[in-house]
Write a structure and sequence with these properties.
4-stranded antiparallel beta sheet, 6 helices, about 25% strand, alpha+beta, 4 domains, 15 strands
């Protein structure tokens, strides 16, 4: 009887032992799976940490561009061309697959001329049949009024120090018309059409402004996503406020919020610049003449050096475009021809350029 019980207990123990072994086996498998997942996560985490420390898919290069090394374009006021790929430029090169371009800092002379010439009669006034030219220079409101009055006869400009408005008195013996298309009239606060009868005085309703507010650094060679957008220019690299005194050297440094807010962009036909053209433009749209002085810019250029993801994206874009075009018999696409052609150009501008990048 005891032997039967011992045999039964041994059978139970064996079954329990087998069950425990099976459970332990499952736990080992589960733990191994967790270990593998943690190992993969740790691998990815380490890769990302390493990528932040030493990026492998992007390359950032800091360059200095100085007008000392490159004279402005002959015959084009305010325009400067920097030949990045020239063999005479030590340290510079053609940049490929540019995905960001940032201005980090600038040194710019504040030219001591707030009355300046240009291609739009900027330093001229036309009163009646008489056109006068104000010599370029640094003027306060009183010195400018005196200069104007010295050049006119029987027409007197005056400035009220209380109201800060400019007035014009006509003593010519007949009516005169002031041509306000000449920009200097608006800078004197005279914005509206002016017809002044003999013996009459007309007073402006706007306060004169002879200051130069800022300089825009404009480039046709940069991506719109790498620029500041305004209603005047679509590719402003940066707007430099002239906060000092005329004759000062203006130091500008991009703040951190501006730096991080400028996102990367997809390379396109402008992504391989060998020449960078920069135009210096005043707040009123006139070219900024440095008068033989010089500026210096510090730029950060980010290039894409790993083309794999870009090639995959271009491939997916082609595939989606082909799928769409196969349905043209069922969809009215009569007005999309130009857009489709541009779509093709954009795709082929991206992929071939990326495929030229040598692997790391």
């Amino acid at each position: 009887m005891r032997n039967n019980n011992d045999s039964h207990d041994l059978s139970k123990d064996s079954k329990l032992l087998l069950d425990n072994n099976a459970t332990q086996g499952k736990m080992v498998t589960l733990l191994k799976g967790i270990y593998d997942e943690l190992g993969e996560f740790n691998h990815i985490y380490q890769e990302r940490i390493f990528e932040q420390l030493i990026p492998s898919q992007m390359r950032k290069t800091i360059i200095h561009l100085s007008s000392i090394d490159h004279a402005n374009v002959e015959g084009v006021l305010g325009e400067h061309k920097f030949d990045l790929a020239s063999t005479s430029n030590s340290g510079l090169k053609q940049f490929n697959n540019v995905i960001n371009l940032k201005l980090l800092s600038a040194q710019l002379p504040y030219i001591p001329h707030n009355i300046y010439a240009g291609n739009n009669n900027n330093n001229q006034l036309k009163v009646g049949a008489v056109t006068i030219t104000i010599p370029e220079g640094k003027y306060g409101i009183y010195s400018l009024i005196n200069k104007i009055n010295n050049l006119l006869t029987n027409i007197v400009f005056s400035f009220d120090p209380i109201t800060h408005f400019v007035s014009i008195k006509n003593t010519t013996g007949s009516s005169i018309t002031c041509d306000i298309t000449y920009p200097l009239f608006k800078r004197l606060g005279l914005h509206e059409e002016l017809i002044i009868s003999d013996g009459a005085t007309r007073t402006a309703v706007h306060i004169p402004d002879l200051s130069v507010h800022y300089i825009d650094i404009v480039s046709p060679d940069i991506h719109p996503r790498g620029s500041t957008l305004t209603n005047n220019h679509s590719t402003i690299l940066k707007r430099i406020p002239l906060t000092g005194q005329m004759g000062d050297l203006i130091y500008y440094e991009a703040n951190y919020s501006d730096y991080i807010s400028q996102e990367l962009f997809m390379p396109d036909i402008t992504a391989n610049p060998s020449i960078l053209t920069l135009n210096l433009v005043r707040h009123d749209g006139t070219p900024y003449d440095l008068k033989k002085l010089h500026f210096d810019l510090k730029l950060e250029i980010t290039e894409l050096v790993e083309p794999t993801l870009l090639n995959e994206l271009a491939s997916h874009m082609r595939r989606d475009k082909d799928r769409f075009m196969k349905k043209e018999n069922n969809i009215d696409i009569s007005g999309l021809t130009d857009n489709t052609r541009q779509f093709d150009l954009d795709i082929f501008a991206i992929a071939p350029a990326a495929s030229d990048i040598p692997p790391n």
